[in-house]
Amino acid sequence: MKSEIINKADKVIAKTYNRFPIVITKGKGCTLWDSDGRAYTDFVAGIAVCNLGHAHPGVVKALVKQAELLFHVSNLYYTLPQTELASWLVNNSFADRVFFCNSGAEANEAAIKLARKYFSDKGEKGRCRIIAMEKSFHGRTMATLSATGQEKIRKGFEPVLNGFDFVPFNDIEALRSKINSSTCAVLIEPIQGEGGVCCPDPEYLKGVRQICDEAKILLIFDEIQTGMGRTGKLFCYENFGIEPDIMTLAKALANGLPIGAMLTREHIAEAFVPGSHGSTFGGTPIITAASLEVVRILIKENVINYGRKTGEYFKQRLLWLKDRHESIIDVRGIGLLLGMKIKIDGDKVVKACMDKGFLINCIQGNILRFIPPLIIGKDEIDSLLECLDDLFGDVE
């Protein structure tokens, strides 16, 4: 069965991923099973998506209940689940308004468009350029790959769209020197996930906020990977004592169902009027009903606080591992967004862990990324650490 599915997929699906030769058929909590019935402990969570784990009964129940009522009617009409989810996001963040779409890239597209439209409506049409960070990742559409600070993402799609400038992450003076009369916004991930789990220096983001205020430009936080409890707070910006003007969400917002959201303040949101932007499937009743249950569970079941404490334990265990093995260069991250830089080929470690029943992720060639469900247990973490300890021991 497995080989038949893989062979068929390789014939009909675009080859945009290097897929591992397993067929995942079922998930429950932090465990996945393949078509051969083999179990894997999941430290990838759909790339920081399934924060509540797989097949959470509360989310399943909300999804089925809404499916029996209404799937889709378009945004020509009001629906209760969309209204309730937007209200929840506004009540639990800095924002006053929410725009719903289908993915993180679309949320970032909306943020880019809104920043330009905001200054255009103010009569400052020359303010149209956005400063982004080197090593950043904001999506695969033409605008978002143009805003991404990685050549490998843009390669082959040139010419990319004009209007983006880049500075090194964590370099406050480089940012200050790049701002000019044509700058409308700074677009930044509070923690660069795809860039290598690069964390900001303690005062860096406060400095970015101050610079944006002084220049009277907008600060956009891409929290697609860091949001929804991943860093021990509902939103990552809460860790740093500042607020953005615009924030984008996706990934864990609906625990695996396709949704994106752009949040912003009232006076900025006024730039979006009927016809200026839209999305056919953005915020459909069935997706927002499931998402509303996800956010309720995060708070009601104290999942975020649990994930914060578990993340602290996980990081300490990774630091213990670093002390034992010269192959490990660095351990970094916040909450359950953790990275470990190593001296050896990370893909080989990922494959070896998979053979032992653990799914982990490698980025940038030699950085192991650990982004499990927020409900991951200490026993599961200890089992992975024992596996990694053996693997690095064998290599050394």
- Strand content of the residues, in percent? 15-25%
Could you estimate the helical fraction of the residues in percent?
25-40%
What is the element string, with H for helices and E for strands? HEEEHHHEHEHHEHEHEEEHHHEEHEEEH
Question: In angstroms, what separates the terminal alpha carbons?
Answer: 38 Å
Largest sheet: 7 strands, mixed
Descriptors:
396 residues, alpha/beta, Aspartate Aminotransferase, domain 2, Aspartate Aminotransferase, domain 1, 2 domains, four-stranded mixed sheet, 14 helices, 17% strand, globular
Structure description:
The protein is of the alpha/beta class. The protein folds into two domains: 58-300, Aspartate Aminotransferase, domain 2 (3-Layer(aba) Sandwich), CATH 3.40.640; 305-369, Alpha-Beta Complex (Aspartate Aminotransferase, domain 1), CATH 3.90.1150.10. The chain contains 14 helices and 15 strands. The strands form three sheets. The protein has a seven-stranded mixed sheet, with helices on both faces. Strands 1-2-3-13 form a four-stranded mixed sheet. Strands 11-12-15-14 form a four-stranded antiparallel sheet, covered by helices on one side. Helix 3 runs antiparallel to helix 11 (285-300) and helix 4 runs parallel beside helix 11. It is globular. The mean pLDDT is 97.
